[in-house]
Amino acid sequence: MTSVTDAPDIVLAGAGIMSATFATIMKELQPDLRIAIFESLDDSAEESSNAWNNAGTGHAALCELNYTIEQGDGSVDISRALKVNTEFDLSRQFWAYLVRKGAIGSPGSFINPVAHVSFVRGASNVAFLRRRFEAMHAHHCFREMEYAQDKDRLMEWMPLVVEGRDPAEDVAATRDLTGTDVDFGALTRALLANLARQPGFSISYRHRVADLRRASDGRWDVRVTDIATGERKKVSAGFVFLGAGGGALPLLQKSGIAEGKGFAGFPVSGLWLRCDDPALAARHAAKVYGKASVGAPPMSVPHLDSRVVDGNRSLLFGPYAGFSTKFLKHGSVTDFFGAMRPDNFGPMLAVGRDNFDLTRYLVGEVLKSSDKRFDALREFFPNARPSDWRLEVAGQRVQVIMPDPSRTGKLQFGTEVVTAGDGSLAAVLGASPGASTSVAIMLGIIEKAFRTEVPVWTAKIAEMIPSYGRSIADDAGLCHDVRSETAAALNIVGPL
Ligand SMILES: Cc1cc2nc3c(=O)[nH]c(=O)nc-3n(C[C@H](O)[C@H](O)[C@H](O)COP(=O)(O)OP(=O)(O)OC[C@H]3O[C@@H](n4cnc5c(N)ncnc54)[C@H](O)[C@@H]3O)c2cc1C
Questions:
Q1: Global pTM value
Q2: How far apart are CA 118 and CA 68, in angstroms?
């Protein structure tokens, strides 16, 4: 009998959270599908999905100030926050389904309740946060959010942030106890272990997807290199999923699909400060997000986080952004230059021209001394001691530069999906809110690429994701039911 690796229906490049999520959903929808993953490293989730390579925030727009937009008249537009908030509900429902089914073990191994806090300083920021809170709290999706300026209350919420601070300083915060910390590395491994127990699934480590070509029968010839032996082989697949993180853009370019033309990538590296002192970690049970500085990309908003990894609590602060020409942590310094094409040169130049603040910010971050880095931490945690903290290198982010007919290039900070017009290939580019909204991203791909199958699969999708086809943002009752049920299954805090 032919092995799955030799004749799969679907080939996936990369073994991070995106491929693991896509393969899991597809196997649930059609168990007889033959699915093969090729991963160039020795193990899964060693790039962005690894616990220490990302912040592990279950992004639900409960604390990230950049998901709301302050309008000229002072009002606050919460529409993007609502989108991210309810997309996270889709992930929660899918994970709850897998936990109930016994497919991915104990929820505490990958998701834990951690309060999400937005924290601001200075009178005008305090006034903004109050207006923002009023706009959000009025919506049923943000009904659990609380607001405080009172120092005693803030002390209760986040003692490390309040202690040692000038009592005269204007500060305020919002808190949402339904927030989470997610170990996307552990989740990826659990999803892949569940797949490995099923027939018709294979995963080949130390195998790089080197190239892909359209065959005359409309299928894809995927060229794979065995890194250990140097052996090359051709695998034919009906559908290709490029879940290669920073490696997805070069593969998209190699596919030659028209929909991928003009895309480019802007790599941003990152550093964290990490503290594993159990006594300090026990005193900070929150993810405290601040405001971005001028020119800072939204993903560089500083935050002081409680993390739960392998059952241990730690503190994480950052990220400090930087510039590296690598597209992956284990990538090559030539990645950025190798992805330059005649069709993306214009968009890249336009982005360079229009984002001078960003360039200045990144240069400033790269040149920052360790003392300056520590000063940034002390803005959140005034009594922090350098001896308790060490540097941790974060994952690489490749921000997407999109072709934009009006301006010839646009820097995109979110996640971008490119799907071939005939539905035979999909690529996931970009970063935040990324992993948290992976289920919403995969459902979008499936609806586009498997249009004819979706009517047959709808009942199964609704079994996995009960709110499928309905709007949690528009239906307060549905929102309450879904959140109560997923909170119970995942052992996290639900609505009151
Ligand atoms: C600093 C930072 C902080 C973040 N914080 C958060 C957060 O708090 N919350 C959140 O939800 N998201 C966060 N994200 C985003 C999140 O980490 C990503 O959206 C997510 O991990 C992307 O998953 P992926 O599977 O696409 O990529 P990855 O996890 O990077 O996996 C891609 C895999 O593909 C492999 N690969 C690459 N090229 C090839 C090839 N040619 N052949 C075979 N294999 C290949 C790589 O080795 C890797 O294993 C953060 C990201 C970063 C960098």
A1: 0.96
A2: 12
Q: Give the Cα separation of 364 and 300 in Å (integer).
A: 13
Atom of ligand 1 at shortest range from CA of 428: 26
DSSP structure string for 348-362: HHHHHHH-HHHHHHH
C-alpha 70 – ligand 1 centre gap (Å): 30
Q: Which of 54, 188, 272 to mutate to test the pocket of ligand 1 (most atoms within 8 A of CB)?
A: 54
Residue with tokens 């004749």: 7
Best CA proximity match to 16, nearest among 270, 395, 412: 395
- Reduced to 3 states (helix: H, G, I; strand: E, B; else coil), residue 306 is strand
Q: Which residues contact 85 (CB under 8 A, 6 or more apart)?
A: 60, 61, 62, 141, 142, 473
- Asked whether residue 388 carries a pLDDT value surpassing 80, the answer given is yes
User: Which atom of ligand 1 sits closest to the CA of residue 209?
Assistant: 42
Residue ranges per structural domain of the chain:
262-414
- Could you report the per-residue pLDDT of 353-380, keeping only the tens digit for each? 777 777 777 777 777 777 888 999 999 9
Residues 230, 324, 291, 283, CA torsion sign:
positive
Cβ(394) to ligand 1 under 6 A?
A: yes
What are 207's two structure tokens? Answer: 């195998």
Q: Does 1 have pLDDT greater than 60?
A: no
